[in-house]
């Protein structure tokens, strides 16, 4: 990770879960980290706890469902830091919205955040790298095991899974377009299985149900997922860790 010391990383959805853990670790490794979320109070608290870290963390308010806010965020990063070297597309959400009975607005919201927001951030990060002739940048797409299979008898996550299947296609598309652009910018998709974060509690909106899910076997942690990102980021420039599928040892799906 030494070659990333002093360089700039953007982490979307950095107020909790994977995003919070990733932002913390990158700052500890010496990077200048910008963490964004709709509500940045938790990021500011985290930044204060990292004031003696090797790197820094700054919070920027941004709703990645809104393109104008993403563009404004990248403009602010350009003015303050020059641009982005690493982009971690972590922001994502899930509504309990089955395909036969879900609400259209919930479907739309998942696609706006999980797909369109990810696309806009990836595009703007690439533009930032090109403008500064950064040839070794890295774009991360936080996918999910739900982007690789459907869990039986779980209609509430079918639309969410559709957004994550889209991320699989985007990963391959980015890889091909980056190759065609003759750049060494890398792209990595990380697909976690069940990990204990706030995500499941928000999706189910019932803490007792979430507790039941987590009680079935030992699940992964946000730190486990962060370890996989650091592995891909710290790999030699000649190595592209393209797709990481990571599951609990006892997980069956």
The N- and C-terminal alpha carbons lie at a distance of 33 Å
Assign a percent range to the helix content: 40-55%
Name the structural class.
alpha/beta
Shape field? globular
* Cα-atom radius of gyration: 17 Å
Count of DSSP-assigned helices: 8
Q: Roughly what fraction of the amino acids lie in strands?
A: 5-15%
Low-confidence stretches: none
According to CATH, what is the class? Alpha Beta
Order of helices and strands: EHEHEHEHEHEHHHE
Report the strand count: 7
Question: How are the strands ordered across the major sheet?
Answer: 3-2-1-4-5-6-7
Describe the overall structure.
The radius of gyration is 17 Å and the shape is globular. 42% of the residues are buried. The mean pLDDT is 93. The longest helix is centred in the middle third of the chain and has 28 residues, at 104-131. Helix content is 45%, strand content 15%. It is built from 8 helices and 7 strands; from the N terminus they run E-H-E-H-E-H-E-H-E-H-E-H-H-H-E. The chain has helices at residues 17-28, 41-49, 67-81, 104-131, 158-180, 198-204, 207-214, 222-234; strands at residues 8-12, 32-37, 56-61, 86-89, 138-142, 186-192, 243-246. The chain is of the alpha/beta class. The chain has a single domain, classed as NAD(P)-binding Rossmann-like Domain (Rossmann fold). Belongs to the short-chain dehydrogenases/reductases (SDR) family. One of its GO terms (molecular function) is oxidoreductase activity, acting on the CH-OH group of donors, NAD or NADP as acceptor. InterPro entries: NAD(P)-bd_dom_sf, SDR_fam. It comes from Dreissena polymorpha. It holds the Pfam family adh_short.
